[in-house]
Amino acid sequence: MILHEFINLNKKLVLGSASPRRKELLSDMGFNFEVRTSEMEEILNSSDKPENIVMSLAEQKSESIWIKTQDEILITADTIVVFNNKILGKPADYDHAFEMLSMLSGQIHEVYTGICIRSFEKRIMNFAKTEVKFKPISDEEINYYITRYKPFDKAGAYGIQEWLGFHKIEKINGSYYNVVGLPCVSISEMLHEFIL
């Protein structure tokens, strides 16, 4: 029996995210699900290890979203970019995005996503890590990308699936989908574990 059929047996899947990328990826995995979000203010302990930070953020999101019945499984996730031990979240404005991309130009950074899967009775957490290497990016290219694509809702100020990713990401080590925002293989494995 394939996974999405098994999940649908007496269980309703809920995605706790407003991210269109996460919604698209979970849908492409073959799942039917409801979306619920919250306006939670994240508490980030920047002195902790990146994997602990993202799992804590995913858990915070999970705790802020109501599970309505015993037949629901809630998935939440949070993604950060880490460069030289510095956490790069979503840029506040153009200048902030420009600063981030200038730092990442020609360098290797890491993308971490924490995942929390929870029901009334159970919760499990995990994370995924992907290394990303950018080719050098000129100021003109950074300006073009920010002006045209407005990556203000993306950790690290870029989307791997957009223009900058096509032209400037030289290689990755790890899950591509993790950089998009949802490490699909990890989600699949965790759901298998969760319902066994």
If you had to describe this structure to a student in words, what would you say it looks like?
The chain is an alpha/beta fold and 196 residues long. 37% of the residues lie in helices and 26% in strands. It is built from eight helices and seven strands. Strands 1, 2, 3, 4, 5, 6 and 7 form a seven-stranded mixed sheet that branches. Helix 4 (94-104) packs across helix 5 (139-149). The chain is elongated, with a radius of gyration of 17 Å. 32% of the residues are buried. The mean pLDDT is 91.
Quick summary:
This protein has 196 residues and is α/β, with parallel strands linked by helices. 37% of the residues lie in helices and 26% in strands.
Instruction: Estimate percent helicity.
Output: 25-40%
Measured by DSSP, the beta-strand proportion falls in: 25-35%
Question: Poorly predicted ranges (pLDDT <50, ≥5 residues)?
Answer: none
Largest sheet composition: 7 strands, mixed
Through-space gap between termini:
13 Å
How confident overall, as mean pLDDT? 91
Total beta strand runs:
7
Helix count from the secondary structure assignment: 8
Task: Supply the key terms.
single chain; 196 residues; alpha/beta; 7-stranded mixed sheet; 8 helices; 7 strands; elongated
Topology, pairings included?
Elements: H1 3-7, E1 12-15, H2 20-28, E2 33-35, H3 50-63, E3 72-83, E4 86-88, H4 94-104, E5 108-118, E6 123-134, H5 139-149, H6 163-168, E7 169-173, H7 176-180, H8 184-195
Parallel strand pairs: 1-2, 1-3
Antiparallel strand pairs: 3-4, 3-5, 5-6, 6-7
Helix pairs in contact: 4-5
